Amino acid sequence: MASTKVEQRCSQMARSIRVHSLRMIHAAGSGHPGGSFSAADILAALYSDCLKFRPDEPDWLDRDRLVYSKGHGCPALYAAMAVAGYFPVDELIGLRKLDCRFQGHPDRRKIPALEASTGSLGQGLSIALGMALARRLSGQDYHVYCVIGDGETDEGQIWEAALYAGAHGVDHLIGITDYNKIQNDDYSENILPKRDLPEKWAAFGWHPIEIDGHDISAIRGALEEARGVSGKPVMIVAHTVKGKGVSFMEDEPGWHGKAPNDEEFVRAMAELGEEVSV
Known about the structure:
- By secondary structure, this protein is an alpha/beta fold.
- It has helices at 2-28, 33-38, 40-49, 74-83, 124-138, 156-167, 188-191, 197-203, 216-227, 262-271, and strands at 65-68, 144-149, 173-179, 182-183, 186-187, 207-212, 234-239.
- The termini are far apart.
């Protein structure tokens, strides 16, 4: 029963993340709904049931670190942090506005609670690796999580970090690949096929876990397994659907980086269980 309640809470948070993300992107007239929606369940599981954090003490030394490397999908991250208590939900509507702290890519200068400024694709895993090495030296009690996009694995820097972390047995480092199989304006298969991602990570000395990235139970189970691994880093390969939750956005490359118009916004919100008018 307790597990069911946790999963219900995670599912509700995932819906809230999608609703807030859509509101932000529509109000801004720009943004990335596809990748925000594909990562919503992952972020909900992290913030509802996994991460150690204190919103009123963001620099708590023993907090878990989350590096959100796929920074263009930040509406979902901002929404998750707001629901988790880091800042008022009402402020999210300022996404991408001048002088608003919610920029189009996460900016740590504006949001000190972020672990890193991200969006230059490929860099986040190296940052997370550095944090995990710092934990090894300090002996502190935390894990480092890094959410990357599957298109981001085109970047050589991802594999440099992967090679080092595997070769040196860097544990307490947990990567999560949002494997939605679309990058920018086309399917990854037509741009640069990823092919056997779990096997690739295993070859680099990581412990791979392959799951359905929209199954809350599977996500929670993978995170629990990952935290129990010692002596090597972990990569959770989460199969997701870009635009998940809105039928006309799902698995459509055109919704990688496009804001909905008023009619599309109303339709999408209705599918998410929210009645709105514009």
